[in-house]
Amino acid sequence: MNLSQFQAFVGVESTPVKNEVEKGAIRKFADAIGDSNPIYRDEEYAKKTRYGKIIAPPTFSRTFDYGELPGFSVKRDGLIHGEQHFEYFRPIYAGEVLYCSTRLADVYEKKGKLGRMIFLVYEQKGTDEEGKTVFIAWSNVIYRAQEGGFRP
One digit per residue, pLDDT tens: the chain, 152 residues? Predict the structure, then answer.
């Protein structure tokens, strides 16, 4: 797979997928990351905070379904997770519904000690039922042609 083949998918976005934010899933996620903050698990405690209810840890959005880019499929073997960052416009609340989508935002190439690397920059977005953006996450995935694969 070469750079221009990937570039043909820049700007392509998935159909938004409905995700229900369950308080049990928030608690399990907080347990898994070792975060005992009661804002993630104790309703009585959460009611007394400025949020008024249980919220999700910042990286909880990684558990959502974002759908698939139409016509785009990259084998996961050989891919390297390069970087990730999140921008939140408000917390994610237990009990709400978010619609999440992903978009290939950019593609670029670099050469390193191990050869040619193609960087795929994904933008993942979550919106609430009113259509307001709750968060945007960006991730860089490194594709090495000799290890990964592409299936159009």
Answer: 788 889 999 999 999 999 999 999 999 999 999 999 999 999 999 999 999 999 999 999 999 999 999 999 887 777 888 899 999 999 999 999 999 999 999 999 998 887 888 999 999 999 999 999 999 999 999 988 654 444 44
Cα angle: 127, vertex 40, 86; to 5 degrees: 40
User: pTM for this one?
Assistant: 0.87
**Environment class of 6 (CB within 10 Å of its CB; exposed 0-12, middle 13-18, buried 19+):** buried
Domains recognised in the chain with CATH numbers? 3-21+65-143 (3.10.129.10)
Q: How deeply is 61 buried, as exposed, middle or buried, from its count of CB atoms within 10 A (0-12, 13-18, 19+)?
A: buried
